[in-house]
């Protein structure tokens, strides 16, 4: 029997990608609101409450407003905004976060999907904090290189219009150091303070890699790159969407360069440890529209409805 799914905000970048994932599934009945009623509160409420699973692909304010329309206690809401990612009433939508977290997602009717930068950062840092290797007060810094699709319709249009030489080179942004993903990056890793985080957008559609520099002798205990990789392997044992890449392998690079787009069109995260016993960088790579957004939402839905977790997703 098919379960009913409604996407509120289906015209946005994440909403459209969600529909791509869901449209071919025989176990899903997609509820489609008429175009001229997309902003009608009564009609939206009708669809939200008729759904077994409702995805919110909306700005923060609109997501909060949408939640006032949900009165059906059996509707599971999976929100893709930043509105609820650190709320105690919502479960963070990252099944691989920690042992037992998948069960929390399965039992919840309120799931907040992580941000793209945050997903990569949390997956790289949380295992070290849990293992007691990175102390909560360690002064973490990170940067992220991402494709322009992460900026939504306006940014996509700007890049794809062409003719603007200012967009030819990578562009750092959020230099006020108040990026909207910072609260979840702190809370979901167990850090005492948010990292100094600098995102960079490049002239490519999608793909993302977060890099975290680490001085091993300033951790709670000194570890080698291989020991950090072992911590990752233990933490993510059995996880089909997380790959811990071999340390010091030539296969990790493309003629000496790191390929930020290698996980595009998958729901996979690759974790790397580069460097030496004196200094190293941790890197997490994913598709910012896949595991960093719509793919993660579908994965959470699969957990909730009891489907195989990889249904509709490319590992």
From TrEMBL:
The active site is at 116. It catalyses: N-acetyl-L-glutamate 5-semialdehyde + phosphate + NADP(+) = N-acetyl-L-glutamyl 5-phosphate + NADPH + H(+). SUPFAM superfamilies: Glyceraldehyde-3-phosphate dehydrogenase-like, C-terminal domain, NAD(P)-binding Rossmann-fold domains. It is found in: Cytoplasm. Residues 4-105 form the Semialdehyde dehydrogenase NAD-binding domain. Catalyzes the NADPH-dependent reduction of N-acetyl-5-glutamyl phosphate to yield N-acetyl-L-glutamate 5-semialdehyde. Pfam families: Semialdhyde_dh (PF01118), Semialdhyde_dhC_1 (PF22698). GO terms for molecular function: N-acetyl-gamma-glutamyl-phosphate reductase activity. CDD domains: AGPR_2_C, AGPR_2_N. Keywords: Amino-acid biosynthesis, Arginine biosynthesis, Cytoplasm, NADP, Oxidoreductase. The keyword NADP applies. This is N-acetyl-gamma-glutamyl-phosphate reductase. Pathway: Amino-acid biosynthesis; L-arginine biosynthesis; N(2)-acetyl-L-ornithine from L-glutamate: step 3/4. PANTHER family: N-ACETYL-GAMMA-GLUTAMYL-PHOSPHATE REDUCTASE, CHLOROPLASTIC-RELATED, N-ACETYL-GAMMA-GLUTAMYL-PHOSPHATE REDUCTASE, CHLOROPLASTIC-RELATED-RELATED. The keyword Cytoplasm applies. Belongs to the NAGSA dehydrogenase family. Type 2 subfamily. Its EC number is 1.2.1.38. It is an enzyme of class 1 (oxidoreductase).
């Amino acid at each position: 029997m098919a379960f009913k799914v409604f996407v509120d905000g289906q015209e946005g970048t994440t909403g459209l990608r969600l529909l791509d994932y869901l449209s071919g599934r025989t176990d899903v009945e997609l509820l489609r609101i008429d175009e001229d009623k997309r902003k009608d509160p009564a009609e939206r409420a009708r669809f939200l409450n008729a759904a077994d699973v409702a995805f919110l692909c909306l700005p923060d304010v609109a997501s909060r407003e949408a939640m006032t329309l949900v009165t059906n206690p059996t509707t599971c809401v999976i929100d893709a905004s930043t509105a609820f990612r650190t709320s105690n009433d919502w479960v963070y939508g990252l099944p691989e976060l920690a042992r037992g977290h998948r069960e929390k997602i399965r039992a919840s009717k309120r799931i907040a999907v992580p941000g793209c930068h945050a997903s990569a950062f949390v997956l790289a840092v949380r295992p070290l904090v849990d293992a007691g290797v990175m102390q909560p007060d360690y002064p973490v810094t990170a940067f992220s290189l991402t494709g322009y699709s992460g900026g939504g319709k306006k940014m996509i249009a700007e890049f794809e219009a062409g003719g603007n030489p200012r967009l030819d080179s990578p562009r750092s942004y959020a230099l006020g150091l108040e990026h909207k993903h910072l609260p979840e990056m702190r809370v979901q890793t167990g850090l005492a303070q948010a990292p100094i985080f600098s995102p960079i957008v490049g002239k490519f559609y999608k793909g993302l890699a977060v890099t975290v520099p680490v001085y091993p002798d300033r951790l709670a205990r000194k570890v080698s790159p291989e020991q950090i990789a072992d911590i990752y392997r233990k933490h993510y044992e059995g996880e089909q969407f997380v790959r811990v890449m071999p340390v010091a392998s030539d296969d990790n690079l493309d003629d000496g360069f790191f390929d930020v787009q290698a996980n595009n069109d998958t729901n996979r995260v690759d974790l790397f440890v580069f460097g030496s016993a004196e200094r190293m960088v941790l890197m997490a790579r994913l598709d910012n529209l896949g595991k960093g957004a719509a793919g993660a939402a579908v994965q959470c839905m699969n957990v909730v409805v009891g489907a195989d977790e990889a249904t509709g997703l490319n590992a």
